[in-house]
Fold this sequence. Notes:
Elements: E1 11-14, H1 18-30, E2 34-38, H2 54-57, E3 59-62, E4 65-70, H3 73-81, E5 85-89, H4 96-99, E6 103-106, E7 123-127, E8 132-133, E9 139-141, E10 152-153, E11 156-157, E12 176-178, E13 183-187, E14 194-195, E15 200-204, E16 207-210, E17 215-220, E18 226-227, E19 232-237, H5 250-265, H6 267-274
Parallel strand pairs: 1-2, 1-6, 2-5, 4-5, 6-7, 7-9
Antiparallel strand pairs: 3-4, 8-11, 9-10, 12-19, 13-15, 13-18, 14-17, 15-16, 17-19
Amino acid sequence: MIFPAFQHVRVAIRGGGDLGSGVAYRLFKAGFPVLITELAQPLLVRRTVSYGSAAIEGEIVVEGVTARRVESVAAALASQAAGEIPVLVDPEGESLGEYAPAVLVDARMLKCDLGPQPVRAALTVGLGPGFEAPRNVDAVIETNRGHFLGRVITEGAAQPNTGKPGGVMGRTADRVLRAPVDGIVRGLVPIGAHVTQGEELALVGETPVTAPFDGVLRGLVHDGLAVHAGMKIGDVDPRAVREHCFTISEKSLAIGGGVLEAVLGSPAIRRLISGR
């Protein structure tokens, strides 16, 4: 529930994928009112741990926290009061002027600078490449795995996009499932299932997507989504721990912790909390 001292420190998170959801979870558990804005049909690979899935499914519960799709800012505020994270379909952030966030977090992971945010906030935070403090955000959170993961950067930028996924038990690019052709995705295996090398996991159109090695299917985008050849649509985890498919990752929580530090360490936000 919202901590009374934080009730006027509204948070808006643009993007409810797995990293944005780690941020939402950390801030929600700390007592901040959180709103997520999302696409109508977001491509969420780790959809079982992404609050943005509510945009498609209507509701999702991740680690005991409910996210619910809402249709207006008024409904979002009611959802927050009920102890939920509202998800508003608003790709351009047109509702944010009415919502008036004190904290704006860009978690879309677009890895490029698309220009000004749709609304000014007391604190603006960007995740990963594409942001540079203080040029286009007040703080950048490092998203690259390694020694600096989750660090708060108030002068400078995050490490450049490598284009390579982080290694897991020696597996890197091969653990990512990519669309072999343009088409509509249809899953054949549920997330969390143990899979074997060569097993068909999904179809894109009529073309199968197969497991690159033995493990568990950790992520797969929603059925019915249109994708392009080469687009990331899923991943297989060689650790084969089913629980990992339904809990927020250590990476997402580290990034969420960085955002929480940026929020609580911001002089502007401290003034709002203290009422000065």
